[in-house]
Design a protein that fits this description.
Blueprint (H helix, E strand, L loop, with lengths): L13 E5 L1 H6 L5 H6 L2 E4 L5 H4 L9 H12 L3 E8 L6 H4 L4 H19 L5 E6 L17 H6 L3 H12 L4 E6 L7 H19 L6 E4 L2 E3 L6 H13 L3 E10 L7 H22 L5 E3 L8 H5 L21 H5 L1
Parallel strand pairs: 1-2, 1-9, 2-3, 3-4, 4-5, 5-6, 6-8, 7-8, 8-9
Helix pairs in contact: 6-8, 10-11
This protein binds (3S,4R)-3-hydroxy-2-oxopiperidin-4-yl beta-D-xylopyranoside.
Length: 325
């Protein structure tokens, strides 16, 4: 399995998340994935709830299509994600026994990793396990079905299962809000380093930290702290990659040019800090064109104009932050 594929000489692999519906339905959608990407990953199709809307069957078809298409193009693919607090099926919420929850978790990881073994360069083993506001009463980990049923040990359980099931895939711990300036972000970076250290102390393999990189035009990147974070991980033998880069722009007033300029500044600052720490394994955006982005649905602009979170505009033309990349 190519470790996140072959970038252009001197570069790091660039990738983007891909969505099944436009892949099937929009004839223009696939082209930039072929021309721009060393790597693609199914944005949603490997999430627990989409893979297993019912308990008995795994719905591997859509992710198989996307992954095999990428491999046929000579690209790498990666998996997102085994453990997440969101997008879980109702039947999983109804599993209340600890021992049964553990069996479900291990079985899910084993069967899914086994199905894709040899085809995925890496897996997000756990996604967003750090508390939104760590340091508050709830402790360092975020509330989830897995934390409620199994406690913090669901994290090492998941890493151990993934390592057994796919020894060739790099195992990633993925999270958000790890790049900005301020106490809350310092705490989140510290919690991430703690979790990785604890996994290593217990002899679990964790190959890399994924920084999602959902940036905000109005938040300041802490380049120094981000670089230090990368160096600290490197000293622990742990890699780093940007996994879900995009820009949330609801706070920016002005026209499309002003929005795009603000985005290219924050992306540039982010990449400067990232590359100053250790060479990232990959830089991956959460889509390519503004035509398809979760940001428009979840954090729309207040002036009613469309969000512009990604490197290409809705017509597929590269924007200022494409140049920053
Ligand atoms: C989002 C997708 O982009 C949407 O299409 C979906 O409806 C919800 O999930 N952090 C993550 C991603 O780890 O999985 C989320 O993706 C965005 C935030």
């Amino acid at each position: 399995v190519p470790a996140h594929a072959a970038p252009r000489p001197g570069g790091v692999p660039f990738g983007a998340a891909i969505q099944f519906e436009p892949f099937e339905g929009d004839p223009d959608y696939r082209r930039p994935y072929v021309s721009e990407c060393d790597l693609v990953l199914p944005m949603n199709e490997l999430k627990f709830g989409l893979l297993r809307p019912e308990r008995g069957a795994f719905r591997f078809g859509p992710a198989d299509r996307l992954v095999d298409w990428a491999l046929a193009n000579g690209q790498a693919a990666r998996g997102h994600a085994f453990v997440w607090w969101s997008t879980n099926p109702d039947w999983l919420e109804a599993v209340t026994e600890e021992a049964e929850a553990e069996r479900v978790l291990l079985d899910h990881i084993e069967r899914t990793a086994d199905h894709f073994r040899g085809r995925l360069a890496s897996w997000d083993v756990v996604n967003e396990v750090i508390a939104h506001e760590p340091g508050e009463a709830g402790g360092p980990l975020r509330d989830s079905i897995w934390l409620r049923r199994l406690g913090p040990r669901h994290v090492p359980l998941a890493f151990a299962a993934a390592a057994r099931a796919d020894p060739s895939a790099r195992l990633v711990i993925n999270d958000y809000d790890l790049e900005f300036t301020g106490d809350r972000y310092d705490r989140r970076r510290a919690v991430m380093l703690d979790i990785v250290r604890q996994l290593q102390d217990a002899n679990h393999r964790v190959d890399a930290v994924g920084i999602q990189g959902h940036l905000y035009s109005h938040l300041k990147i802490d380049r120094e702290a981000l670089a230090r974070f990368g160096r600290d991980l490197e000293a622990m033998g742990v890699g780093l990659l940007a996994t879900e880069l995009d820009v949330i722009d609801f706070q920016v007033r002005g026209d499309a040019d002003a929005i795009d300029e603000a985005a290219s500044v924050v992306v540039g600052d982010f990449l400067d800090g990232l590359f100053a720490g250790q060479r990232p394994e990959a830089v991956i955006t959460w889509g390519l064109s503004d035509r398809y982005s979760w940001v428009s649905d979840v954090m729309p602009r207040t002036d009613g104009t469309p969000a512009r979170p990604l490197p290409f505009d809705p017509q597929g033309r590269p924007k200022a932050w494409y140049e920053a990349l």
